[in-house]
Structures are given as C-alpha cells and as structure tokens.
C-alpha cells in the first residue's frame, strides 16, 4: 500500500486554475495562488509549484493506493 499527498489537474485546466479550484474548497485560493505565483517566479516548474503551494496551506488530497 502506498500513501501520499497529491494534486490532480483536470485535462482542461492550467496548473494555476488547478490551484485555484483545489484551494477554493477551503477558502484559501488567494493564499495558495500567491504562493504558486511566487514559486513560478522563482523558477519552479508549474506542476511542482502547484504541489508546493497547496502543501503550504494543507490543501493536498491524501491518496491511498
């Protein structure tokens, strides 16, 4: 069994839109988007920046496989 924190992006959305959608479930879209933008500006890949921004605010889903 594998357990991990994940974020899943819908096929029709950007990573920024994904962060907004996922963080919005907890009312944290402004905070997470600010972190996402900072990570991208610092040179992180967008997928990693999305994971990190959501991790910072405890918005990632727990996956058990």
Largest sheet, spatial ordering of strands: 1-2
The average pLDDT value, as a whole number, equals: 95
In DSSP terms, counting alpha (H) and pi (I) runs of 4 or more, how many helices? 3
Q: From the structure provided, what is the oligomeric state, counting identical versus distinct chains?
A: single chain
Strand content: 5-15%
Strand element count:
2
Helix content: 40-55%
Q: Determine the structural class based on helices, strands and strand pairing.
A: alpha+beta
* Count of separate structural domains: 1
Radius of gyration: 11 Å
Poorly predicted tracts of residues: none
The coarse overall form would be globular
**C-alpha termini separation:** 6 Å
Largest sheet: 2 strands, antiparallel
> What string, H for helix and E for strand, traces the elements in order?
EHHHE
Topology:
Layout: E1 3-6, H1 15-24, H2 29-41, H3 46-56, E2 61-64
Antiparallel strand pairs: 1-2
Helix pairs in contact: 1-2, 1-3, 2-3
List keywords for this structure.
alpha+beta; 3 helices; two-stranded antiparallel sheet; 65 residues; globular; single chain
Would you mind describing this structure in some detail?
- This protein is α+β, with helices and mostly antiparallel strands.
- Helix content is 52%, strand content 12%.
- It has one domain (13-64).
- The chain contains 3 helices and 2 strands, in the order βαααβ.
- The radius of gyration is 11 Å and the shape is globular.
- The model has no long low-confidence stretch (mean pLDDT 95).
Please give a quick description of this structure.
With 65 residues, this protein is α+β, with helices and mostly antiparallel strands. Helix content is 52%, strand content 12%.
């Amino acid at each position: 069994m594998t357990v991990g924190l994940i974020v899943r992006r819908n096929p029709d959305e950007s990573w920024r839109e994904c962060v907004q959608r996922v963080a919005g479930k907890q009312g944290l879209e402004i905070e997470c988007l600010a972190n996402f933008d900072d990570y991208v500006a610092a040179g992180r890949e967008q997928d990693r920046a999305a994971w990190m921004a959501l991790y910072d605010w405890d918005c990632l889903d727990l996956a058990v496989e």
